[in-house]
Design a protein that fits this description.
Layout (H helix, E strand, L loop, with lengths): L2 H22 L14 E7 L6 H11 L8 H8 L9 H16 L3 H17 L2 E8 L12 H18 L4 E9 L4 H13 L5 E7 L12 H9 L3 E6 L8 H7 L4 E4 L7 H10 L2 E4 L1 H6 L6 H13 L4 E3 L12 H10 L5 H14 L12
Parallel strand pairs: 1-2, 2-3, 3-4, 4-5, 5-6, 6-7, 7-8
Helix pairs in contact: 1-14, 5-6
């Protein structure tokens, strides 16, 4: 066992101890207050974590033309739900990259977005949050210096941590499947550079892209791991980006973003259990993007993972652009619909704290 692994194990035990203390003080109450125990959010994207009123204000402050000129129509245009789903790649092309990324770009916007997202999460019962983003998708196509942009993100996080002493937070940098290797390497280098300031991990995200070769990143991911960064990979959400086996063999992630397609592969589930890999499950996101056809498909996926002993935690993915997408509401939904039991949801919450890449509590983690 390496020194880094020992350190992470110690942190996991400390988080479990703190979590159990909080759990002893909470119990299942009414459906309007559930869950009463502390929550951790490990999978939320910056552009989809900004509330529509704030996006609307940013657009009008900057004079950015929107596809809808009336606020409620704009909100409905960018918001998904299980009843109003949109295929993942369609949302990427029509809304995410054309509207949400530009509105959350530039130093002022990213600082405000990170601060408001993390502060809002804490006010809604989340005690630990990892917010992920690709900084190159928020710098107006290289018009804004990347270091200035990253520092703005970190200022937003530091302000949230300063105002909320019980909050723990970190930022994950995503490389993109649609980027070339050289651009992605720059993002990883920036993650290493700002690791001690609050960039806690790296990720691979984006739609399936012809020519993307996960093996090309083996060495740079090892460099990031040696520098202390955590490793997670978006995979197994959609068939065009289902490279979980390749990710496990070449990048050795400790977590996988989504990973729902593992439920169809018993050998893969066995491998996940053997390696102790945690899946970052995002229930309503998978329904809203038609990654899962309906609630029965979600139920079957969750029950299969539970039955095989695969570790997972519950997350939002896109909390502000999915109707009722906040983490607490998703916990209540899963309980009320009988998809997971109270005990299983508590285990999921505990798993999230234990699997976090954040090195310590509050602002002191980076001082």
């Amino acid at each position: 066992m390496t020194d880094g692994e020992t350190w992470l194990n110690i942190l996991a035990r400390e988080r479990t101890f703190r979590y159990n203390l909080s759990m002893e003080q909470s119990s299942l109450q009414t459906k309007n207050t559930y869950p009463t125990y502390p929550l951790a959010e490990l999978h939320a994207h910056l552009g989809t974590s900004v509330a529509p009123p704030i996006l609307w204000q940013i657009a009008h402050d900057r004079g950015i033309k929107l596809p809808k000129s009336e606020y409620h129509e704009f909100r409905d245009y960018i918001t998904l739900s299980p009843e109003r789903p949109m295929p993942l790649n369609d949302y990427f092309s029509q809304v995410y990259h054309n509207i949400l990324d530009p509105l959350s770009s530039g130093t002022w916007a990213v600082e405000s977005a990170v601060y408001n997202t993390m502060s809002g999460a804490y006010r809604n019962g989340i005690e630990l949050i990892e917010l992920r983003t690709n900084p190159m998708k928020h710098n107006f196509n290289n018009e804004v210096d990347l270091d200035h942009l990253i520092m703005a993100m970190l200022r937003g996080m530091e302000r949230a941590l300063l105002e909320h002493s019980k909050l723990s937070a970190g930022i994950i940098f995503c490389i993109a499947r649609e980027f070339d290797v050289e651009r992605n390497k720059i993002i990883i280098e920036k993650a290493i550079k700002y690791h001690k300031r609050g960039v806690v991990a790296i990720d691979i995200a984006g739609p399936g892209t012809p020519g993307f070769d996960i093996t090309a990143y083996k060495d740079v991911f090892e460099n990031a791991r040696a520098a202390g960064l955590g490793i997670t990979v978006h995979s197994g959400e959609a068939l065009d980006a289902n490279d979980m086996w390749e990710a496990l063999e070449n990048l050795r992630p400790s977590r996988i973003g989504h990973g729902i397609l593992a439920s169809r592969d018993p050998a893969l589930m066995d491998e996940l259990v053997t390696r102790g890999v945690v899946l970052e499950i995002c229930p309503l996101s998978n329904l809203a993007t038609a990654a899962l056809a309906n609630e029965e498909a979600l139920r079957a996926t969750l029950r299969t993972l539970v039955d095989h002993g695969v570790k997972f935690c519950i997350n939002t993915d896109w909390p502000e652009v999915i109707e009722d997408g906040h983490l607490q509401k998703q916990y209540r939904m899963l309980l009320e619909k009988g998809m997971l039991t109270d005990a299983e949801l508590r285990t999921s919450a505990r798993t999230a704290f234990e699997a976090s890449f954040i090195p310590g509590p509050g602002l002191s983690a980076y001082l």
